[in-house]
Design the sequence.
């Protein structure tokens, strides 16, 4: 097969692009591993869960219990997902099947704008408006609840936009058939559209979960940052990401390295979520064809 | 796939992409070695000191057109760490620090008090030292118990690694693990916003920031300590005890330009800037 | 796009359940809009009074309490420019390779795709730590616009590639076959047919990527830094708008109004970029395809 020289150059360039793009994640992983190795080596995995407290700068030997922060990260994310999922899916249903065309378009634009608002701005608003409201209701104010509300607002657009995309992939024939069978709009959505878009919805939720786990600044500003296992919604908590942002700037030696361990942990969790999402969508793609 | 076995004929795109990538590479490598750049002083550390030093830096740049002062924040511990690692020329530390501690040199540029703040609507106007210790160590959980209204106390504490925390702990002879906090904050403004939004809260922040915000009508108030108001005069004559110097640190025998900058930052030329940032000048 | 033409074809049964469901959906939509409006109006009311040409062009004074955000806007745009000039060619190339030059199940393509999926899920703070160590320290770029832009480029790459790929995939295979049958060369097919057809996908990716990049704080604090001077080269540290907002609201007493005004500018900037992108996409797409 004849190929001119420039052609093969182009093909190599494309391959180089793909290689570079693919290599970044390997680079990040490797780097995180190297940076966190001293802590894993010196402290050992178990002590991250079994030490009595998080007090990494204390005199030797320091305490490195991350469990309260891991729990906090998970609770905040799950809370936000529980709140944002029905709202996000509802939004997508609204745009796709209920709203007049113009309203739907505007609504979609609003959701897109929500997606673009920086987390700092959400955090600032949360700190100045939301937290005092919660404080007057049930002190102290900065709390798990505040984190959940702000995070929900931030991941709602992700869920809504991805659900809209999933709805668009539901074959129009399904809907026509359903209408022909005399099913109402509600029935069609609940029994035809949602099941058909199921894997897309799962993917959306998992991706949003990943974003929620990784969110830093807004959470740092509203959750109160006390390292403790929360017993109720109004307790302040500190998430893994907030901890990294607060301590990364000055941490040294094992402390710094242990922050990288928490980064690695976070990344591992998110990677697990992403791969699950990928698996789900691939399985459904196979099922379709 | 039939697509893959097709012939490639014209390739303007390929050339364009190639050129672009090459340009990027050249550009990246060039910018790394370019030499005729202005002299640069990198300063990192305390977020309390950063706005002050950034403003002083701007004034210094006006006087020395070929010098750039880069200020990065992150807390006093970062300043110490960066100077030790050689990442920064100068560190900013907002507490008392001994030259031996960093194996370098220490220069004070201003003073700052740490003031206890409550919500403006809190009727309590004074707390004794013992009461403050009791509040922050969790022995007292209700304002009633220190002579205030009936409401749960909300203790706002500074995050570890912040000098304000160290100054506070040192003054009240508390250990970090004794503090029972409800909210942990990073920078001063976060503390002020938290207290302003919560009638039950008590916290401690840089006096300068608090005074500035009170002037703007933010709903907080500063409490006197042992009957002494945290005013600039009281801080300067040391009758208000909960105060600290704002320091610049360097490694031993700093570069002449760095020394010049530090001398400038200590001189009376910057007095107005220090006042503007609500700190107490040491120049006089 | 919505499928409004399908709506009227539903039988008009108005059972109580249907009514409730419809009300619920409208309720969700209205409450979200109301919540967001509350948020947006709050920011605008606090920020707009400060708004003026001077605010946009002047350098910040007195730690950001006075003056404007001119130098910060420039830094932000430079960071964005570095980010896009690296990520767009790289992303486009990767997307072309993934969707046009390698079979769907090819091993290399699958590996690249998998690693991009993972990259998309990496938390931004981890990007910050990574960028700080690789670009700032190891490659010796220090706290600089270049470091920040490159870090952001890594971050937006998966978004760009995924939506561009989606764009390529939406081109019906008949087009490619027809192009091949009429003897169009591969590169010509690519430049005249496939890339224009993929522009909407790329635009969506660009809008999302720019949104993500402009909104980023955590990754930039550790890479592009805190200096609010007008940048002179890409190796200068430059404070991004979102970092400025963070600092003003968390560290500068009396910086709130400026913080809100900067936030309003940032949201406005996003609106403008979204608008331009969709306008541009429609125009360009319409012309290119028609001319063929």
Sequence:
């Amino acid at each position: 097969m004849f190929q001119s020289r420039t052609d093969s150059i182009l093909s190599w360039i494309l391959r180089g692009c793909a290689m570079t793009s693919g290599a970044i994640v390997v680079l990040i992983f490797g780097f995180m591993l190297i940076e966190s190795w001293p802590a894993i080596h010196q402290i050992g995995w178990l002590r991250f869960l079994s030490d009595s407290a998080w007090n990494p700068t204390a005199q030797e030997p320091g305490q490195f219990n991350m469990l309260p922060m891991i729990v906090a990260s998970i609770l905040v994310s799950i809370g936000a997902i529980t709140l944002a999922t029905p709202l996000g899916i509802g939004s997508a249903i609204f745009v796709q099947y209920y709203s007049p065309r113009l309203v739907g378009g505007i609504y979609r634009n609003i959701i897109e704008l929500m997606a673009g608002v920086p987390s700092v701005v959400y955090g600032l608003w949360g700190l100045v408006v939301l937290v005092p409201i919660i404080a007057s209701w049930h002190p102290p104010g900065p709390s798990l609840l505040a984190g959940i509300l702000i995070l929900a607002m931030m991941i709602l657009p992700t869920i809504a936009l991805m659900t809209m995309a999933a709805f668009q992939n539901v074959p129009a024939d399904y809907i026509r058939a359903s209408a022909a069978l005399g099913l109402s709009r509600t029935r069609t959505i609940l029994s035809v559209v949602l099941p058909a878009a199921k894997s897309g919805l799962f993917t959306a939720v998992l991706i949003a979960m990943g974003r929620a786990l990784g969110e830093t600044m807004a959470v740092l500003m509203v959750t109160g940052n006390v390292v403790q296992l929360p017993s109720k919604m109004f307790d302040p908590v500190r998430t893994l990401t907030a901890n990294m942002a607060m301590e990364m700037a000055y941490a040294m030696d094992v402390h710094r390295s242990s922050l990288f361990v928490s980064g690695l942990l976070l990344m591992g969790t998110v990677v697990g979520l992403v791969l699950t999402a990928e698996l789900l969508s691939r399985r459904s793609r196979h099922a379709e064809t | 796939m039939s697509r893959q076995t097709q012939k490639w004929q014209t390739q303007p795109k390929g050339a364009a992409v190639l050129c672009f990538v090459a340009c990027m590479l050249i550009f990246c490598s060039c910018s790394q070695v370019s030499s005729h750049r202005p002299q640069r002083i990198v300063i990192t550390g305390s977020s309390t000191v950063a706005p002050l030093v950034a403003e002083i830096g701007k004034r210094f740049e006006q006087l020395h057109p070929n010098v750039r002062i880069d200020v990065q924040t992150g807390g006093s511990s970062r300043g110490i760490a960066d100077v030790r690692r050689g990442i920064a020329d100068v560190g900013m530390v907002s507490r008392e620090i001994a030259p031996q501690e960093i194996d370098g040199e220490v220069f004070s540029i201003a003073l700052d008090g740490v003031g206890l703040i409550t919500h403006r609507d809190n009727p309590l106007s004074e707390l004794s030292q013992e009461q403050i210790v009791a509040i922050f160590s969790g022995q007292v959980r209700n304002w009633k118990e220190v002579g205030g209204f009936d409401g749960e106390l909300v203790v706002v504490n500074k995050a570890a690694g912040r000098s304000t925390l160290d100054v506070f702990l040192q003054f009240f002879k508390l250990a970090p693990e004794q503090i029972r906090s409800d909210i942990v904050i990073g920078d001063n403004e976060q503390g002020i916003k938290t207290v302003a939004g919560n009638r039950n809260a008590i916290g401690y922040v840089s006096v300068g920031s608090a005074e500035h915000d009170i002037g703007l009508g933010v709903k907080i108030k500063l409490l006197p300590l042992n009957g002494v108001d945290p005013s600039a005069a009281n801080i300067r004559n040391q009758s208000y005890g909960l105060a600290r110097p704002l320091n610049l640190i360097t490694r031993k025998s700093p570069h002449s330009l760095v020394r010049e900058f530090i001398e400038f930052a200590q001189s009376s030329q910057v007095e107005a800037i220090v006042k503007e940032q609500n700190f107490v000048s040491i120049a006089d | 796009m919505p499928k409004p033409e399908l709506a009227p074809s539903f039988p008009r049964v108005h059972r109580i359940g249907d009514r409730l469901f419809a009300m619920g959906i409208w309720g969700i939509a209205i409450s979200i809009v109301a919540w967001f409006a509350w948020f947006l109006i709050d920011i605008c009311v606090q920020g707009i009074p400060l708004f003026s040409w001077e605010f946009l062009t002047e350098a910040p004074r007195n730690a950001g309490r006075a003056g404007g955000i001119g130098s910060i806007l420039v830094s932000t745009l430079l960071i964005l420019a570095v980010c896009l000039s690296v990520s767009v060619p790289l992303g486009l190339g990767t997307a072309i390779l993934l969707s046009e030059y390698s079979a769907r199940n090819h091993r290399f393509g699958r590996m690249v795709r998998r690693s991009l999926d993972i990259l998309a899920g990496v938390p931004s703070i981890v990007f910050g730590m990574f960028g700080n160590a690789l670009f700032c320290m190891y490659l010796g770029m220090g706290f600089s616009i270049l470091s920040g832009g490159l870090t952001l480029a890594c971050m937006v790459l998966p978004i760009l590639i995924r939506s561009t790929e989606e764009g390529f995939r939406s081109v019906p295979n008949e087009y490619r076959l027809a192009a091949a049958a009429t003897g169009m060369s591969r590169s010509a097919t690519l430049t005249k047919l496939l890339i224009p057809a993929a522009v909407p996908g790329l635009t969506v990716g660009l809008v999302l990527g720019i949104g993500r990049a402009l909104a980023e704080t955590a990754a930039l604090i550790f890479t592009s830094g805190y200096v609010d001077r007008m940048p002179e080269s890409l190796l200068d540290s430059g404070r991004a708008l979102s970092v400025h907002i963070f600092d003003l609201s968390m560290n500068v007493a009396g910086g709130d109004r400026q913080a809100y005004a900067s936030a309003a500018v940032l949201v406005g900037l996003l609106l403008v970029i979204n608008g331009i992108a969709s306008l541009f996409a429609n125009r360009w797409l319409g012309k290119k395809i028609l001319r063929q």
Q: What stands out?
A: The mean pLDDT of chain A is 84.
